[in-house]
Amino acid sequence: xxxxxxxxxxxxxxxxxxxxxxxxxxxxxGRGILLFAIAGCGLxxxxxxxxxxxxxxxxxxxxxxxxxxxxxxxxxxxxCHRSEYQSWHASYHRTMTQLATPETVIGDFDDVSLxxxxxxxxxxxxxxxxMVLMEIVDPQTGGTIQVHRPIVMTTGSHHxxxxxxxxxxxxxxxxxxxxxxxxxxxxxxxxxxxxxxMPQERNTEMLVGRWNATCIRCHSTNPRARAEGxxxxxxxxxxxIACEACHGPGYQHLAANANPLARYRKHxxxxxxxxxxxxxxxxxxxxxxxxxxxxxxxxxxxxxxxxSWHRNGPGFRPGEDLTETRHLVRARDLDAPMTKTLIAxxxxxxxxxxxxxxxxxxxxxxxxxxxxxxxxxxxDISCLSxxxxxxxxxxxxxxxxxxxxxxxxxxxxxLACTGCHEHEKLADENQLRQHTQHLPSSAGSNCYNCHMPFxxxxxxxxxxxxEVDTPDVAKSLQTGRPNACNQxxxxxxxxxxxxxxxxxxxxxxxxxxEDEKQVAASLLLLLKGDAGQRALMAWSYSWGPxxxxxxxxxxxxxxxVLMDDPYQAVQFxxxxxLDRLPDFDRIGYDFLQSVEEIRQQQQQVxxxxxxLPGRPGGEPAAAILIGPDGQLMWDRINRLHSQRDxxxxxxxx
Length: 653
Description:
By secondary structure, the chain is α+β, with helices and mostly antiparallel strands. Helices cover 36% and strands 13% of the residues. Strands 2, 3, 4, 5, 6, 7, 8 and 9 form an 8-stranded antiparallel β-sheet that branches. Strand 8 and strand 9 (188-191) form a beta hairpin. Helix 1 (3-20) packs antiparallel against helix 2 (27-47), helix 23 packs across helix 24 (531-540) and helix 24 (531-540) runs parallel beside helix 27 (568-579). The radius of gyration is 29 Å and the shape is globular.
């Protein structure tokens, strides 16, 4: 508490003494003085602005929340904006980074033993503290020693949670990353490299300092890495994505509205408040750039900006032009000097985030995808056209549904598109069916399933591309990216899709080889594709609309092929999809089992499938490589699988 509240408390006490000591005839006056004092105390709570404590009172062995002259933290917003504060508080943005407490840690620390690359980790609790006893390699002897480290921070809380431990250096706030993540839906620990589509890690030392140098940028508000060499003194105004991340620094707003009379005049419409940014009042480009500060493929603007960012934090403030301080990487614009610099430093830079035609391939980079969407380039579509950062009381969805994707009411249907695209036509069921060639009630008549399908990858699942596009077999063959038709009709070939698109929309047919004409496109990607394509297909094999369109009684044997995939993320997704198929949820497959155990379970899946009474057969099943006799065409399956694309894949979410 700073001196202003203490002064007001002293004044309040004085006023109370005066009021209570007045004669009975002056009761009304005394009450007036008392009410005035109470109002003054409330005003003082606002005047305090929730300043940070003295820096010497903060922990020294982890990054700290420390407000500067601009940022005042979200608790300052609560006084006047209670409903907005509460909806933000319920969001996953807030919990992106948190201190490790019994209220925030979702992982199991009840004396859990884990192993990573031959090193043992014991997770345990010491009262309200979370600890890890881990083996590390002694650089002097080459042997292993055991050290206890406190878990001090967490990242994530929706799909998975990552844990950061203090290195125990009294002069450094650098953190280490536990090489495991806890999956929220499955309630289990898995190695970190299995939670992301990447080659298995071999150097755990690379994890040291990652939060300070990288994660802090988008997992906290007003981050200042302050990481130069061995000295790391990371500060942030607030852990997680807080109010000021979207609205800008709040100090001037608090100062301008400290007077309640001035504040209520603005509520009544007497003038506008220019002391804070309201994204909903910005033009679509500037509003979307606020999201793009994190949800984009971007880098520093100039090489000389690097140290400035580390020392002073990002130069961008909401409401400003993001391109003045950040370089937005566009795979369709390779002439940008900074893009050339990034590629020179990392030849895989573009392929780690983009398909070969420049469409974004990973989740979390939606603004980059939006930039290439005609709806944004030629219209008024912004991130806020579909998403909302605050859940209004009028929303009939429960909080849990809203916080999953923060969509506005109605945006899970065609409302997002029909406002601009032939509203009357697409709102009429008969004309909608004529346009989509699907029943109006089916997933095939939802605009986004065809024009914004699940062709990005992240968080162990498929995510929507956020670049509006049109299904085209030629593009699929050119880029390897699944098209919407074949991602839903998993049992149909590229030839089937090309015929339909030509018949319905006049889309030119590309040249196809025999496999592309005859074999289901999903199987070509699952058996022959790279790790990213295999992951998307494994996820699609349990996607509800796809199972409705394609049936659910033939996918299990092909998912079993991925049970020993070179990428553990692919193995995990295949196992999860297998669990969601009827009759296969009790196989008990675990991708962390031994090679021999996995092979036995692969055979168990095949044996169980061959015993199903209603499995496909006959001529229609040829596309899914099942013969007229109902048996799998193993010769063709093995031939396609032998052509698997084994190139390196490291999708940077």
